Amino acid sequence: MTGSGPAGTPPDPATAAPRVLVVHGSREFLLAPGDTQETDLGVIELPEDVTPGAVVETHLGEPFEVRRLRGPDLFDHLERTGAPMMPRDIGLVIGHTGVASGDRALDAGTGTGVLAAYLGRLGVEVTTYERDPEFADVARENMSTAGVGDLVDVRTGDLTAALGALSGGYDLLTLDTGDAPAVVEHAPELLAAGGFLAVYSPFVESARECVEAARAAELAEIETLETIQRRMDFDDRGSRPSTAGVGHTGYLVFARFLPDVE
Questions:
Q1: What angle do CA 136, 174, 256 make, to 5 degrees?
Q2: 158 touches 129 (CB < 8 A)
Q3: Which among 39, 227, 242, 243 would be 20 to 30 A from 105, CA to CA?
Q4: What pTM was estimated for this model as a whole?
Q5: How many CA atoms lie within 13 A of 120 on its CB side?
């Protein structure tokens, strides 16, 4: 794939044209207008003025449909630096907190940045911390790919070390880090009145520590959910849950900052 800027120079997020999916059956390529992509069905030369809904042909005459990049596509096409949060978990975070356009979110444990990208595409202003400098660089590129580079600020560093410099007043605090309980203790200083906390953990022991920290911080509406989904199989013999795959992904702790009004 060729870039949309000079050779060896990544595109400027502020001026780069949005990337699109170019699809033929099970084949999907994430490209920017003007890109060239070699495939087993021929070479795709994507026009500079291409728009979603168009059909482009390879030099061998094979048609590819151009589609707009949508939220669920981020999970499949963003460059990964680890196991990203699953869409099912992100859906619970959005649904249980009601986060929406114009809100401010503070996030720690950026990783691939799938959660931050989803929030940015909702119109949420996100500040997210990633300890690993290389992971942070990849996350910034992913925010550009997702079209939210102007809404998501990826910072390299540890959120716990930056707590004293943050002004607070966030509508949402999301955590996916091993030291999440230590940050939960500071939730009242970080959240606006009525703001929500959402912590993801693959281990129930960490979820319990976060619950205890939330109680100590006198947060309200504390609840913990295990995320389990089962696919259904329908065939000529009948209908049943699929026996393939793992339905469990992790644990989500939710809480809310509701200070007493004197």
A1: 165
A2: yes
A3: 227
A4: 0.86
A5: 27
